Each structure stands twice: as C-alpha cells, then as structure tokens.
Amino acid sequence: RSPLTTEVQSMIQITRTIVDGTDTLSADVPETLPLARWEDGLNPEDWQCDGCELTGGSDGEQVLLASTNGSDSGALYTTYPLEGGRSYRILLDALSAGNVSLAAAWGETGRPAGNPVQLQNDGMRYTYELTFTAPYEAEAAGEVRIPVMHLAGADTEVAIHRLQIEETRE
Description:
9-stranded antiparallel beta sheet
C-alpha cells in the first residue's frame, strides 16, 4: 500500500490439491466454466440477423456490426447448446447507437430467459453482463439463442467486440 493513501489492495490465489486420485470437483466449490469465447473473431456467418444487416469489421478489426438500416426493429443472435437447470453468464463488450438490449432466449420459441440488459446509447464501448438459469423444461435442452441483441428504431446500430459465455456454479 502506498504510505499516502488508506486504500489497500490484495490478491488471493487459491489452489486445490487432489489427494484421492480423482480429478473431479465437488459440487460445493464455486467455479466458472468458460463454454465459449469469441475474442479472436466474430464471424458473421455464425449469426442470424432478422430485420437488420450484419457485417464484420474492416481492416482485420475483430468486431461484429449490426444495423436496422432504416427498418423499425431487428434481432441479432447466435445459437449455443446449453443444459437445463444450470446457471450461465454472458459477458459482452459492445457499443450502440440507438435502443439496443441484450437478452437470452430459448430455442425455437424465442421465449426470454432472465431479465434483458439495456445497452448505453452513447456510442461508447462497455462490458455488459447477463446471468440466467436454464429451465429443466424440454425446450431448454438444445440450441439456445445467446446473446439476443434487440435493436429498436430506424438506423439503430450495435458493434460487438468480445463475447464470452460461461457456466457458473453458486
């Protein structure tokens, strides 16, 4: 700590030694399991854009761009298989111009999961977090639309720079 401040900073690293020869974790140990990371490239071919136009970044920029381009609304999403009854977290770096929200939705029905997160409408890049638990229902097994970006209003735009999906244990 600096002698001129009252702030204290610490870092704790926890390791686990397994002595019984198994490599499984017990259910009471909190952890985060990365399921998917799209940090090195967001390929437009992996995404669906309903009512909007979708492009990749220019000049090697790792970004995914979507725009309503004059239509009243649009939805941008990709699909990923998730198991029912488990908790998940989406981390997303994005910037938007217009009314854009982040959500998750179940399969073919598009039924929302969790509470949507509204993106800032100032053209600045922020990190957003969305958490939800997949239901045990049959529709939860299989493809889940994550993330779903809802674009509302003519000429609304969003740029996604990083996306990470994690399974969490609480």
